[in-house]
Amino acid sequence: MKNLLAGALLLGLARAASAQVAAWGQCGGQGWTGETTCIPGWSQCLPGSATTTSASSPISSTSPGTISASIPRATLTEITNFGSNPTGVRVWIYVPQNLAPNPPIVVGIHWCTGTANAFYTATGYGSLADQKGFIVIYPQTPNSDGCWDVHSTETLTHNAGGDSLGIVSAVRWTITNVNANASKVFATGSGSGAMRTNVLIGAYPDVFAAGSAVAGVPFACFEGTSRWSSECSTGNLIKTPQEWGDRVRAAYPGYTGVRPKMQFWHGTADEILNYNNFGEEVKQWTNVSGVSTTPTNTVANYPLSGWTRYDYGPNVMGISAAGVTHDIAYQSNLILGWFGL
Ligand SMILES: *[C@@H]1O[C@H](CO)[C@@H](O)[C@H](O)[C@H]1NC(C)=O
Ligand SMILES: *[C@@H]1O[C@H](CO)[C@@H](O)[C@H](O)[C@H]1NC(C)=O
């Protein structure tokens, strides 16, 4: 990767103004000191790693990352050696042809027994990335049961390890190597991926700007020695807003920055993760955001008939889907809207 654009060709095509490098131009590489922003839509004008050592990047210099050649565009591609990955999470990336300059990152997380490819296919985020220019990262669980680790101390603690750290390392790698915008990193998933989204938003508030969890449970609801918590899944783990909020704050003690926006969706007839978890998520994320559990706005039949949207100020939103099971229809476009994409 480091040498990807060292000595990149200048083919004499029309140059953009100095603010952006033209198509085919060099915008990175070892020792490069020129412009680092490429015009949209030109895969050859991919910034090299030498351009991304700015102080604002949270990545450590010990995670250089490697890709077999360059990252192919508009192709689901596995990346490896992307930094600390103690549990061996596998990661696929989708970089659209029309990559936006300083692009956002959406982390799309599969359900239990799902795969990166299944989530890619089911959500349509690849073609949405083609339209909007963001990057998608699809992690895939290393666990034999196909579910994510959302229970261990490591995964529930900032920078402590578990599946959480592997995913965050892939995000940090992408910020550096694809010159993504560290302020526009988002997480979403369904089922086990929704639980994982809650965990990432709780443990890495500095990395994610927003999350959207479709049929999940609160941060640390599965906490304990076994991978599955029947107490939580059956809706019998009930805490106060302060207790749920305190558990999130304990994941990253001393963090005083802005908290991510959080959205969660849940069917009232969810037979896998009881609907009580919707109310527990309301308590948790309103407390973390410092707002009341009383909605500030309610929208009936949003976005589908019988579903109800509850706003808790601008940064917390719950959508309750009447009569819907765990197999709730995933709303890719609206979730991107929540992310501002
Ligand atoms: C990165 O995202 C932030 C937050 O939306 C925005 O203010 C900033 O301009 C973006 N940076 C670039 C270089 O586009
Ligand atoms: C939420 O947590 C804070 C601590 O930051 C606490 O002071 C507050 O009372 C809690 N709010 C509610 C509604 O429980």
From TrEMBL:
EC number(s) given by UniProt: 3.1.1.-
Broad EC category: hydrolase
Signal peptide: 1-19
Subcellular localization: Secreted
Family: Belongs to the carbohydrate esterase 1 (CE1) family.
One cellular-component annotation, GO: extracellular region
Main location: secreted
TM annotation in the entry: none
Protein name listed in UniProt: Carboxylic ester hydrolase
CBM1 domain sequence ranges: 22-46
Keywords: Carbohydrate metabolism, Hydrolase, Polysaccharide degradation, Secreted, Serine esterase, Signal
InterPro entries: AB_hydrolase_fold (IPR029058), CBD (IPR000254), CBD_sf (IPR035971), Esterase_phb (IPR010126), Plant_Biomass_Hydrol_Est (IPR050955)
Task performed by this protein: Esterase involved in the hydrolysis of xylan, a major structural heterogeneous polysaccharide found in plant biomass representing the second most abundant polysaccharide in the biosphere, after cellulose.
Example GO molecular function: cellulose binding
Any GO BP: xylan catabolic process
SMART domains: fCBD (SM00236)
